[in-house]
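Show me any protein, fold above all:
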Amino acid sequence: MVDDPQTTPPAADGGARPRVGAKARRVPDPVMHAAAGAHAEEPAGTHTEASAQPPEPTNVAVDPTGALSAGTDAGASSQPQAPANTAVDGEVDPHSAADAEDVPEAYARFDRFPGYVQLQRRMAVAHRLGLPVPFFTPHHGVAGARTVVAGRTCINFSSYNYLGLCGHAAVSAAAHAAIDTYGTSVSASRLVAGERPLHQELEAALAAQIGAPAALALVSGHATNVTTIGQLFGARDLVLTDAAVHNSVRQGAQLSGAHWLTFPHNDWQALDDLLRRERRRHERALVAIEAVYSMDGDIADLPRFIEVKKRHRAFLMVDEAHSLGVIGATGGGAGEHFSVPRDDVDIWMGTLSKTFASCGGFIAGCEALIYYLRYAAPGFVFSVGMSPPDAAAALAALRQMQAEPERVARLQARSRLFLDLARQRGLDTGRSGGSAIVPVIVRNSMKTLALAQQLLESGLHVSPILHPGVTEREARLRFFLSCDHSEDDIRTAVQTTADLLARL
């Protein structure tokens, strides 16, 4: 998951929805989040207090002046007024039900959607300043330590191909073989006719890697979190998420209808206080964190969170999207890194698009959890099964990671080198430490955008993270490290970034 900490939890369309009757709040811009990578959108910043329960979705309209309005606090309601022929009991005269003259035109036009209007304004600002929009830039070739942009080969720090397994000969060969055997699609939900031996092999390997009894693989990392949380928890339950947790976790919390609160980033003591206050008011409780946070590159204090969840009889969910293959002596993730019993975490979640060079997500945990999700999670049951080449590629990448532990060691060494050099040059790397993600915080969106463009012109591709994806004071470049980056690549990147930033 890039959510502005000044907004309410986001709605399904990426924008923040104000509670009915509340003042409109600034709506985050989903396209401006695109640079976040990770599961599509990543959160940043920390909340200093628990948020309220997710607001009920309402329509947010654009008034004739173009300003956002919602609710009733601004004076007149932004909601459509009932047509004059509406009866007291809310029923409409059937003879005039098709009459839409009283429905504001803005409610029937996509070009009047508030998010679209805001996007156009921001794009216009960049255009006036002569700055190119850095999103949806076509890359050619494999997204490794090098990438080709506009015909030019650049050192690539924008892709999370951590162990260089995307493009690895064995992984590509496995995908080709799967296509030859099964075709490009399973052409059905796995529940009915889409199950293939590859799925079962992959899930067994993932479960063994995590150290859990069972696992379930799904076609999307984002959907994995949404459907899992949305299915497991409901209106009588409590969901507590880290303030910097990924958008997919937030979407799942909102979908569930549970009472949803956030706690300050990585603050297990604040979580403990919240649970002490709220736990007995609800049936089930979920605590959702990330092992490595994808915006700042810091690591959750997992043992402390385990202590808290046990104390309050809560479930603990850990998102390992950016930790598998990255932390732990052999890339085993947070469980290995902290040497905790694997069953101390109730729900292990991971993605297949990063270390495992494919596409999709998975849940690992006890047999009952996986059995239930297999038959009940909408994002699994009502979705086509993972494609054969994706399943085969992920399985081959997992085996390659296990066969070549030196890749993990090299990634960890390169990541330490980048962080050490960046700090020596006085770059603000925030909370990063111990992972393959290092931000360089610039604290100004326009400077960040200009710096990214200058780096590209210097042969370095780094994605900028801008307001409102993060707060203006947190605008940054984010560097993803790979085991295939050389020491010279890293020294060049740090020196060039520091030199160019000093001139801005």
The domain at 169-403 is CATH 3.40.640.10 (Aspartate Aminotransferase; domain 2). The first strand starts at residue 61 and ends at 62. Residues 1-49, 51-88 have pLDDT under 50 and may be disordered. The chain is about 35% helix and 15% strand.
